[in-house]
Design a protein that fits this description.
Layout (H helix, E strand, L loop, with lengths): L1 H17 L3 H12 L4 H7 L8 H39 L17 H15 L3 E2 L5 E3 H4 L24 E3 L5 H9 L4 E10 L11 E11 L4 H16 L5 E8 L2 E10 L16 E10 L1 H6 L8 E8 H9 L12 H4 L3
Parallel strand pairs: 1-4
Antiparallel strand pairs: 2-3, 4-5, 5-9, 6-7, 7-8, 8-9
Helix pairs in contact: 1-2, 1-4, 2-4, 3-4, 5-10
The structure holds 3,4-dihydroxyphenylalanine.
The site of 3,4-dihydroxyphenylalanine (DAH) has 11 residues, from strand 8 and strand 9.
Length: about 350
């Protein structure tokens, strides 16, 4: 029995030393010291030994068990340390490696132009106002003095949601909302998305952007309107820019006009860009109609004012010489990045 125990110890020592990982070590622990392990079995069979032999063999068996335990423990520590080391080696971070490039977005050209327009008008004391894209027929047409039979009200021109609700066709309803909510003096610009039932082509999109302006105070004249818009055009297109006011019709202003700027490409001589005329149309404007003021609760015998509205997409296209509106909405970063 003594020999058997000693043989077990030397076999176990050999196997433990030869083991290659923590899993092998655990298997060996079970093999020798587990409930049905070889050393355990010897200890269990002690009852078959004689009185004299029992303490001697018991002592040796315990020594063998302890020796195997210590050995297992030592090798286990070694293995753990080397496993951690090799893992650290595998997972080591090379801080000199080039990093993954984060692809940054880019401000959309419409927003680049809008920010520039904001800058100009905020500098003149305007505040920014906003309104809903889903509007009532009342705010979009009725309160703006639009005749009941005005063609823009038709189904072929306007997206209706219900009989009373539509996708706003212009930013002008923001004027109505502002006048109803604020007392004069009022001085706002109102940017936003607008919608019209248009076929898509190089210059038309069913979704587009406008920016509107409104000034209400006492003793406002056409001279204020002209001065403001002339200053705006010079700031946006360059100091040499001239403006021309042509009569026009809008239901919500009287008199109404359209503004052309001298072509900033040819300086007014006529070129492909301005279609030979030397002028480029940029906006509509006028003196706010008394009917609109009264409808919005402003006494038209005391107050008056001017308003203007322009297509932001068109301004962006002019400014950056973009010849197709569709590229503004295709969201191609290669295009957007150029501005
Ligand atoms: N709402 C007009 C349009 O969509 C643009 C416009 C013209 C706005 C004259 C105004 C204005 O405020 O006074 O064509």
């Amino acid at each position: 029995m003594k020999e058997k125990l000693q043989a077990l110890l030397s076999l176990a020592t050999e196997e433990i030393n030869a083991s290659s990982n923590l899993k092998d070590l655990e298997d060996l622990r079970v093999k020798y010291l587990g409930k049905k392990g070889e050393v355990t079995t010897v200890l269990k069979n002690m009852k078959d030994l004689s009185q004299e032999e029992r303490p001697l063999i018991g002592k040796i068996a315990n020594e063998v068990r302890e020796a195997i335990e210590v050995l297992l423990e030592n090798i286990k520590e070694e293995k753990k340390a080397s496993e951690i080391e090799s893992q650290l080696e595998k997972e080591s971070i090379d801080v000199t490696m080039p990093s993954k490039r984060l692809i940054r977005g880019h401000k959309h050209p419409i927003n680049v132009a809008l920010d520039e327009i904001f800058e100009i008008f905020l500098g003149m004391g305007f505040k920014i106002a906003e309104g809903p894209e889903i509007e009532t027929v009342y705010h979009n047409f009725d309160a703006l003095n639009a005749p009941v039979d005005h063609p823009s009200r038709g189904l072929s021109d306007t997206f209706y949601i219900t009989e009373d609700l539509l996708l706003r066709t212009q930013t002008s309803p923001i004027q109505v909302r502002t006048m109803k909510n604020q007392k004069p003096p009022i001085k706002i610009i109102a940017p936003g998305r607008c919608f019209r039932n248009d076929e898509i082509d190089a210059t038309h999109s069913p979704m587009f952007h406008q920016i509107e302006g409104l000034v209400i105070d006492k003793d406002i004249t056409m001279a204020d309107l002209k001065g403001t818009l002339d200053m705006f055009a010079k700031r946006l297109f360059g100091n040499q820019t001239k403006t021309k006011f042509r009569p026009h019709y809008f239901p919500f202003t009287e008199p109404s006009g359209e503004v052309d700027v001298s072509c900033f490409k040819c300086g007014g001589e006529g070129c492909r860009f301005c279609k030979g005329s030397g002028w480029i149309e940029i906006l509509g404007c006028g003196m706010v109609h008394p009917n609109v003021l009264e409808e919005c609760g402003i006494d038209s015998t005391i107050y008056n004012g001017f308003a203007f509205g322009m297509g932001l997409d068109r301004i962006t296209m002019l400014k950056y010489e973009i010849d197709d509106i569709r590229v503004l909405f295709e969201n191609d970063i290669r295009f957007i990045k150029q501005f």
